[in-house]
Amino acid sequence: MALLDTWTRGEHTDPAGTSHPTYRKGDGPGVVLVHEIPGISPDVVAYAEELVAAGYTVMMPHLFGTPAAPVGARSVGRALAQICVSREMSMLAAGETTPVAGWLRSLARELHGEIGGPGVGALGMCFTGGFALAMMVDDSVAAPVLAQPSTPFPLGRRRAADLQLSPADLDTVRSRAAAGCQVLGLRYEGDRMIGSRFETLSRELGDAFLRVDLPGSKHATLTLHRHQDAVDAVLAFFDDRLRR
Questions:
Q1: Nearest to residue 144, comparing CAs of 154, 153, 152, 133?
Q2: CA 221 to CA 218: how far, in whole Å?
Q3: CATH number of 8-242
Q4: Nearest-5° angle of CA 69, CA 111, CA 136?
């Protein structure tokens, strides 16, 4: 059986007319799980299945890469090539919100409108880690999780500290955090891809930023270099924020 055979394939089109495929499975509160590079890999699917087993409706957008393709030099290269020519995503721009955030917010609103409850979870990883923060601009997102957020790639101090948000979006995120919307961040302490943005998050969001700093210099906290403390923290966060 193929990895995604038990998932329902769909497509979401936002008000601007942008469309991307989606994969959905499960029951319960909604979680938008945004895949890392190189795409919806077997490791990402395995983690998504854990969320489904824990009682969540998981929606996985397919933004780049080949669904179910294993992680390797070829799949990573293809994904990076797609990202480099995409107008929706950027690896280097600082002080700007990635354009695909608008589509992701629309997806979150639709899922929340269908399922109801206090809101949906948003979880981004690595290249898409900061996307969850950008999704928090929309009130439908009640539980944003940033797993090893790595963009803009930390080339220089400014990019290393940047949250990939426009000034207006950062103001909204600050306001929502001050009003009680917490943000969960996961990283390995020695992961240089994160730059200094966890310090930025702590400064900008204060106590609303809940950080999990794992020992070591690995990277993928929930998938390839899975750490149980990170997995447990996400489930506890979603249970607290989405099951009220």
A1: 133
A2: 8
A3: 3.40.50.1820
A4: 85
The predicted pLDDT at position 80 comes to 85
Residue with tokens 């990895």: 3
125 φ, ψ to 5°?
-135, 130
> How far apart are alpha carbons 153 and 109 in whole angstroms?
29
Cα–Cα distance for residue pair 147/234, rounded to 1 Å: 10
Q: Please determine, for residue 217, whether its predicted confidence score (pLDDT) is greater than 70.
A: yes
Nearest to 88 by CA among 100, 79, 106, 103: 100
pLDDT tens per residue across span 146-178: 999 999 999 999 999 999 999 999 999 999 999
Which amino acid type is present at position 114? Answer: E
3-state secondary structure (DSSP) of residue 118: coil
Query: Quick check: pTM over 0.85?
Result: yes
> CA separation (Å) from 182 to 27, 70, 133, 202, 208?
24, 33, 11, 11, 5
